[in-house]
Specification:
Number of strands: 10
CATH class of the largest domain: Alpha Beta
Structural class: alpha+beta
CATH architecture of the largest domain: 2-Layer Sandwich
Number of helices: 19
Helix content: 40-55%
Strand content: 5-15%
Distance between the termini: 95 Å
Shape: elongated
Number of domains: 3
Oligomer: single chain
Radius of gyration: 30 Å
């Protein structure tokens, strides 16, 4: 195609349109010319003037949001960084969405988008070149993605085990898992912008949650919102609900995903292999515009999990847990196998954390609450015995109540004073704690570094 000749004709027909379209990257510009030529049945070589008129007409009816983003769409990584420094604005996410919308207009896949691939390559190269103590920015990003995926995978596994204990699996069978459901947007959304599609699918999910709460339906789940090949978002959910409420929940789901056929067996399926289905949901974890989340868990469950895992026990997200419970949960997280000591031990963690939004589900881990399903009573009693056994004797309570202890610690020349510092599991008369909360003493490094200078017990 003779693009220079075509653009000369565009310039002669409409200078304003010429100025607009030449702001677009040549790769996108030439793809746009090809698209117009295919739709109009014209050739750039023999029908250049007529094709130019069609290009002018197409741009005049194209969405203003797409046309206005031509320049932003065309920035290379270096140009975008320079523009951000000059203007003091963050444009990376906006530029990414602009390129998605351009691909949707042109019918391009992300793999065939040379501008996007070049942008990603330059960004990655830049991140790999910035190193601190031998570790690059890209190494840190990759490690963060890996750690976040491991965290969400473990929470999902714990949720599955917890729902088996709660009797909220398919057919209330404790050997089964939940159900797998997919939701897509109607065909008309394929012609709308990425932002409109994303907002629509988020609204549908939020409305399902809202209506289920109003109906008193207790349900939990794991979901992913990801993109089709044309980058229209869709959703996959592994959900758990009591069998007596399942049909009512499905009525709400299909009220908002009305374009789905409830009789289609591929829309709502049993899960024969939980690990396999979870792997399908996590297959694109960490990719741009792919979002994973949980239903029916505490809003801050990820923050709680992170701080527990790295033993950041003083974080405010863990302040609702007693010290004994906190350390007991952390030991449960270290179990390497689900069958370690007690069957389903990973299912105990969310109950011990009070990690559900539902008061009913949190109450399953409490000793004094009645057990709903008789068939699960043995397993639930085993769980309650395991998660609620702490050092809580009258001796300990009386000791803390009637005794004031001042403990002076010398650590590398610094002097610390601790009054009534609470002991965790290690014995009632040891006041230097290895991993304390709130006001921790120095970490234990052996008697060469950690001395008790004086200890006065005043009754």
């Amino acid at each position: 195609m003779d693009y220079d000749n075509l653009e000369q004709h565009i310039y002669e027909n409409d200078i304003a349109i010429y100025d607009i379209i030449t702001a677009l990257h040549p790769f996108y510009r030439y793809k746009l010319y090809q698209l117009v030529a295919e739709k109009s049945g014209l050739s750039t070589d023999n029908d250049a003037n007529e094709l130019a008129l069609n290009v002018v007409r197409m741009l005049s009816i194209m969405k203003k949001s797409v046309v206005d983003s031509f320049e932003l769409t065309s920035f290379s990584y270096a140009e975008l960084q320079s523009h951000q420094r000059i203007t003091g604005t963050k444009l990376a996410r906006k530029a990414d969405k602009a390129r998605i919308n351009m691909r949707r207009v042109l019918g391009l896949s992300i793999e065939d988008d040379e501008v996007q691939q070049d942008f990603n390559l330059n960004k990655r190269t830049r991140y790999e070149s910035i190193k601190i103590m031998g570790r690059s920015v890209q190494d840190s990003i990759n490690a963060k993605k890996k750690n976040n995926r491991s965290r969400d995978w473990m929470i999902s596994q714990c949720l599955n085990s917890s729902m088996q204990l709660a009797g909220m699996t398919r057919d209330n069978d404790p050997t089964m898992s939940g159900s797998f459901l997919s939701g897509t947007l109607p065909r008309k959304y394929r012609g709308l912008s990425f932002e409109q599609c994303n907002e629509e699918i988020n609204n549908r999910l939020n409305n399902i949650k809202k209506y289920a709460d109003r109906k008193g339906i207790i349900w939990t789940g794991v979901y992913v919102i990801e993109l089709h090949k044309d980058e229209t978002p869709h959703i996959h959910i592994i959900y758990y609900v009591d069998e007596s409420q399942r049909l009512e929940l499905l009525d709400i789901i299909f009220k908002f995903f009305w374009n789905e056929n409830p009789d289609n067996p591929e829309v709502d399926q049993r899960i024969p292999d939980f690990e396999g289905v979870l792997g399908y949901i996590f297959k694109d974890y960490g990719k741009p515009n792919t979002r994973h989340g949980f239903i029916g868990l505490r809003r801050d469950i990820r923050t709680i999990w992170n701080n527990l895992y790295i033993k950041n026990f003083g974080d405010k997200s863990l302040s609702y847990l007693s010290s004994n419970r906190l350390f007991h949960i952390r030991k449960m997280m270290d179990k390497k196998s689900i069958n370690d000591k007690i069957e389903g031990i990973h299912g105990y963690i969310l109950f011990s954390l009070k990690g559900f939004k539902s008061d009913y589900l949190n109450s399953i881990g409490k000793n004094d609450e009645p057990i709903k399903y008789v068939g699960l009573s043995r397993k639930i009693r085993e769980m309650r015995t395991y998660i609620n056994v702490f050092i809580d004797t009258n001796l300990a309570r009386n000791f803390y109540k009637n005794t004031r202890v001042r403990c002076y610690v010398l650590y590398f020349g610094y002097s610390y004073l601790y009054i009534n510092t609470k002991i965790v599991l290690d014995g009632f008369f040891r006041f230097e704690i290895i991993e304390s909360r709130g006001q921790p003493p120095p970490k234990w490094k052996g008697l060469d570094y950690f001395f008790i200078l004086s200890k006065n017990i005043i009754s």
